[in-house]
Amino acid sequence: MDKTHRMRLAKDAMDRDWADPALDLDAVAAHAGYSRYHFIRAFREAYGETPGQYLTHRRIERAEEMLRGADLTVTEICHLVGFSSLGTFSARFKARTGLSPSQYRTEHVGRGAALIPGCYAMLWAGGFPTARTATSKKRCEPAPAYGDDEGPASSDRRAEP
């Protein structure tokens, strides 16, 4: 496997798992088959930035999308995009965009469609890791949609034992 292919495997892993706060340098370097220190040098040579900088940029891009389109708090977005500290998220966001997350939302919301309700955005994003594991057992199977009845016996569900 050549160096370019190895770097693409690692970059693909970061693009796929960008929201995972447990994504660490050792795991990404393992995708490329390098030690962590050699991987940092090789990644910077190939892409012009360190793996940490690349991952931060991906997370900030996703946060920008959520701030423009979802009715979630800045703290919720911070955790959904993989940051564990609101202070670090806000500082990195401001360094990248020139605005705090709240200022960014104020400037960019209201220029198009209505915001997606936070509950739908959280459902789409998978929610917080602790909430997902706690609620996954409580979900019931969806009822058939209108017109998807199996036959005449299923039209009156109250009659079933």
SSE blueprint and pairings:
Blueprint: H1 3-16, H2 25-32, H3 36-47, H4 51-69, E1 70-71, H5 74-80, H6 86-97, H7 101-108, E2 116-117, H8 118-125, H9 129-135
Parallel strand pairs: 1-2
Give a nutshell description of this structure.
59% of the residues lie in helices and 2% in strands. It has 161 residues and is mainly alpha-helical. The chain has a two-stranded parallel sheet with strand order 1-2.
Structural class: mainly alpha
Query: Would you give the CATH topology of the largest domain?
Result: Arc Repressor Mutant, subunit A
Q: Total helix count?
A: 9
Rg estimate, integer Å: 21 Å
**What is the rounded distance between the termini?**
62 Å
* Strand proportion: under 5%
GO molecular function, one term: DNA-binding transcription factor activity
Keywords: DNA-binding, Transcription, Transcription regulation
InterPro entries: AraC_XylS_family_regulators, Homeodomain-like_sf, HTH_AraC, HTH_AraC-typ_CS, Tscrpt_reg_AraC-type_HTH
Protein name: AraC family transcriptional regulator
